[in-house]
Amino acid sequence: MKVMVVDDHDLIRKGIILLLGNYQDIEVTADAGDGNEALVLAMQTEPDVVLMDISMPNGLDGFTTTRQLLLQQPNIKVVLLTMHDEEAYIRKAIQSGAHGYILKKSQGSELYEAIYHVYHGRCYYNTDLSEEQIEKMMKEKEKPISPLTLREQEVLRLNVLGYTNKEIAEKLHISAKTVENHKSNMMNKLGLKQKHEMIQYGIKNYFSDIH
Fold first, then answer.
1. What is the model's pTM?
2. pLDDT value of residue 86
C-alpha cells in the first residue's frame, strides 16, 4: 500500500512516517507540508492512500484539499487526521468525500487499520459518534459534480484570496487575458452576473476555510 502523509507540522509528519515504517505492507512514497504541495506530489507519486491533516496553512485545509484531490485522482483513498471529534467536522469530512476519519490521539494500530480498511474499499470513521449517526450522514451526503475545471478552481481560489488578474497570471504562468477568460467562463457556467457573486460562491462551495 503506497501512502502519502500530509501535515503542516514537520515533527508530526516524521513521527507518522516512522510509525508506518513498522508495517511491511506500507510504503510511504511522499510527504507534504500543505495542501498545494500535496496536490502536486499526488500526481507525481500516485499513492493509494493519503493521510491528510485537516488544519493546514496556505488557504487549503484538509477538506478543500481532499475535494480537489479526488477530482484530480478519483481512485485515491483519503483518511483525515484531526484532533476534532465534533459532529460538524465529521459531517464536513463526509461531504468532502474522505473515506476515513481518525483522531490524532488514536493508537498506531488504529491508524494502520484505517489505512487497511480504506485501501480495501471500506470506510473507516473512528469517532465517538455511533455507526447509525455516521451512516445517516453518509446517506445525506450530496456529491455534486463540480462545474468548474481544476484550473478555474485555482483561479477562483486566488481571486478569493484577493489577488489581482496580473498577480494570478504570474502565479499560474498564464496571461492576464487568460485569467479574465477563466473568470468569464466561470460566471457563465454558474449563471452569475456580478464578480462579487463569484467570490461568494467560491467561499461557500470550495474555500470555506478562507476568511
1. 0.64
2. 79
